[in-house]
Amino acid sequence: MEDTEKNTPLPSHVAIIMDGNGRWAEERKRPRLFGHKAGVDSVREIIETTRSLGIGYLTLYAFSTENWNRPAHEVSGLMNLLQRYLQSELETMLKNDIRLCCLGDPDRLPKEVRKTLVKTIDDTRACAGMTLNLALSYGGRSELVHAMQAMAEKCCRGDLAWENLTETTISDHLFTAGQPDPDLLIRTGGERRLSNFLLWQLSYAELYFTDVKWPDFRKDQFFKALETYQSRQRRFGRIVVHLDAE
Ligand code: IPE
Ligand code: IPE
Ligand code: MG
Question: Among the atoms of ligand 2, which is closest to the Cα of residue 67?
């Protein structure tokens, strides 16, 4: 899995749709929250592995705008888990030089979670070893609406001329402003859809789907995904020219 001349280099940015916690728990005749709790161990292991491989950006889809429609006890259970996770992880993030960012609308999160989130983002602001994006109350379409409103406002105020609006302007108004687009998207849990995740940023990502449910997705499965990525040929619309061909 090392970077070699033959292989596609390791991705700079990996995005993951962490799916399958509920079904993992149901298979074990346990409540869904049991699966979410087990999923936190995978989160730790994947963050640690990403950091040790020197991959600069990791984005984890933790809670979507649509997930607010789940039963109240599951939502509050997830919020409690998030709160405890953030509190317990601050020290490790600082030690490993990991900067936390939030993609999404923190205003919808419960006050205590929001406070802890803002503090963790603040405390890790100077960390430069890796950026960890947690997508929380995140929706790709809502992110685009947010960006379009901000750009429209600038146009109305005269701070942005519509004819200067480019793809870069749009990228600069997303939650991921200043970050590279994900090179690799992993979705665990067997579904093959995007579920409103990073609709703009994923336009040229390599997609990797696995039936492994998130609580079982550990270092070895992650390596497999990265190896598959490295075996892919990314052409970006071009063709490959073989130097020895006539
Ligand atoms: C993903 O697991 C975690 C969240 C969406 C918060 P799910 O809870 O969607 O698990 P399944 O898909 O029902 O198994
Ligand atoms: C996507 O999983 C959201 C997260 C992993 C946070 P879902 O389980 O909510 O997606 P759907 O409902 O299967 O599309
Ligand atoms: Mg799911």
Answer: 9
**pLDDT tens readout for residues 125-135:** 999 999 999 99
What is the C-alpha to C-alpha distance for residues 194 and 66, in angstroms, rounded to an integer?
Answer: 13
Contact between 147 and 170 under an 8 Å Cβ cutoff? The reply is yes
Atom of ligand 2 nearest to the CA of 138: 6
State pLDDT tens for residues 10-41: 999 999 999 999 999 999 999 999 999 999 99
Pocket-testing residue among 16, 17, 23, ligand 1, by greatest number of atoms within 8 A of Cβ:
23
Q: Region 198-219: what's the mean pLDDT?
A: 98
240 in a structural domain: no
For the chain, give the number of residues.
Answer: 246
How far is 160 from 144, CA to CA, in rounded Å?
Answer: 17
Domain that holds residue 17: 13-139+181-229
CATH number at residue 189: 3.40.1180.10
For the question of whether the overall pTM of this predicted structure is more than 0.85, the answer is: yes
- Total domains in the chain come to 1
Q: Both ends of the chain: CA-CA distance in Å? A: 32
Residue 213 lies in a domain: yes
48 part of a folded domain: yes
Amino acid in position 117: L
Q: Whose CA is nearest to atom 3 of ligand 2?
A: 64
Cα–Cα distance measured from residue 150 to residue 173, given in angstroms and rounded to the nearest whole number: 7
Domain membership of residue 5 (yes or no) is no
